[in-house]
Amino acid sequence: MTSLVDQPLTGELSAAAQAVGSRLIGAAPLGVAFSGGVDSSVLLALAVRALGAGQVVAILGVSPSLASDERLAAHQVAAVIGARVVEIQTREGDNPAYRANGPDRCFHCKDELFTRIDDEVAGAYGLAAVAYGENADDMMRPDRPGSRAASNHKVLRPLADAGLGKATVRAIARALDLPSADKPAAPCLASRIPHHQEVSEAKLAQIEAAEKALRLLGFAECRVRHHGEVARIELPSGDLVRAASAPARQQIHAAITAAGFRFVAVDLAGIQSGTFTMSLLPVRRD
């Protein structure tokens, strides 16, 4: 019986998968920094495809910035792929530079993750290399300081190096029937806190509770931005009318205030990616 990751790929997708696999030659045993998102899921699947399940370890960093639902979903995706998962506790919250929440917060988070992998996993599992799921589109974005941490720790980025952008990554995920194929982007909970406002476990817990409540109300893709007593909700444009109409409006208000917020606002701009960081970066003038 053909396993999920052994399903045949054709045409451009087959060539893309082979391009990724060729960059993993000599990298076994390989550790894959794994979150359960579509990028790291495809990287994990292609690594298992190229090297074999026994030569690949999915490494999941666990901390208060990872929602419990995301942790569970990551394990489910890895199980479908047939990859073993190793969890490590990361303690980025102990770092004052991370808690200060500057535009480089992601650097400190990724640096902590890769440091823990180096110290706790690489030797224990005899890893020859570690890789993570940066894609070619990510490389073009200026709001990805975590990439610098990957470079510092010599972490491989085979998707990006093979030229796979987000659309190709998702197409491969669909072709392999990965559960995360159409999963919306799910940045860490700390990304919901405006820069230069401290990241704390209490705030992260509020955000997690509020977003979980929204998902239970049927809003599968959402962000709850933490502005002190105010929760600013971002939803896809197609959900805005429902969110502002009865009975959802009252249900949302009750759920978000139960999470500890005093005021609830829905942002008419909808879902926004990287706006806290992008607003602080220098404007490029090409």
Rg estimate, integer Å? 19 Å
Q: Please trace the helix and strand order, writing H or E for each element.
A: HEHEHEHHEHHHHEEHHEH
Query: Which ranges are low-confidence, i.e. pLDDT below 50, for 5 or more consecutive residues?
Result: none
Mean pLDDT: 92
Q: What percentage of amino acids are in beta strands?
A: 5-15%
Spatial strand order of the main sheet: 3-2-1-4
Structural class call reads alpha/beta
Global outline = globular
| Largest sheet: number of strands, sense, barrel closure | 4 strands, parallel
What is the number of E strands? 7
| Helix amount | 40-55%
- Tally of helical runs: 12
Distance between the termini: 53 Å
Walk me through what this model shows:
The protein is of the alpha/beta class and 286 residues long. It is built from 12 helices and 7 strands. The protein has helices at 11-22, 38-51, 68-81, 96-100, 105-122, 146-152, 158-161, 166-175, 201-216, 240-243, 248-258, 275-278; strands at residues 30-33, 56-62, 84-89, 129-131, 223-227, 230-234, 263-266. A 4-stranded parallel beta sheet has the order 3-2-1-4, sandwiched between helices. It has a 3-stranded mixed beta sheet with strand order 5-6-7, covered by helices on one side. Helix 2 (38-51) runs parallel beside helix 3 (68-81) and helix 2 (38-51) crosses helix 8 (166-175). The longest helix is centred in the middle third of the chain and has 18 residues, at 105-122. The chain is globular and about 55 Å long. It starts with 10 loop residues before the first helix and ends in an 8-residue tail after the last helix. The relative contact order is 0.14. The model has no long low-confidence stretch (mean pLDDT 92).
